[in-house]
Amino acid sequence: MTTATAETERPGTEIGTVRKNAGEIIRVEPTTYGGHDLLAVRVFYKASEGDYRPTRKGLTCRRETWEELLPIIEAALAGEGPSPNGANSDE
Fold it and tell me: Residues of the chain whose pLDDT is less than 70?
C-alpha cells in the first residue's frame, strides 16, 4: 500500500538513460512525493537477474529546482565553474 507521502515511480515513463559504467546506468524519470510532481535522476545497478534496480544515489527535485540547476550545470560543463582555489568568480 502506498501512502500519500511515499515516493512513487511511474512505470514506463522513463525520460532517458545514460550508461555510467559497465554495471550502472543513470535514469531520468518523473515521480511523485507527497502529492508533488518531481523529476528523479537516479543511479541504477544491474542485478544478477539482469534487470536494473535503483540505488540510493541520485537527486529528486521539483521541476522548478531543476530549472534553476540546469544553467549552473551547463556553466560547469562550459568551464565556467569556480576558480582553481575554490572561490566562485561571482563573489
Answer: 1-12, 81-91
DSSP string computed for 19-40: EEETTEEEEEEEEEETTEEEEE
Residue with cell 529546482: 65
Handedness of CA 71, 76, 79, 85 (dihedral sign): positive
The verdict on pTM exceeding 0.85 is no
List Cα–Cα distances, 11 to 14, 63, 71, 85, in angstroms: 7, 19, 29, 44
Nearest to 39 by CA among 20, 67, 19: 67
Q: What is the pLDDT of residues 51-73, one digit of tens each?
A: 999 999 999 999 999 999 999 99
Complete domains list, the chain, with CATH: 8-77 (2.30.31.10)
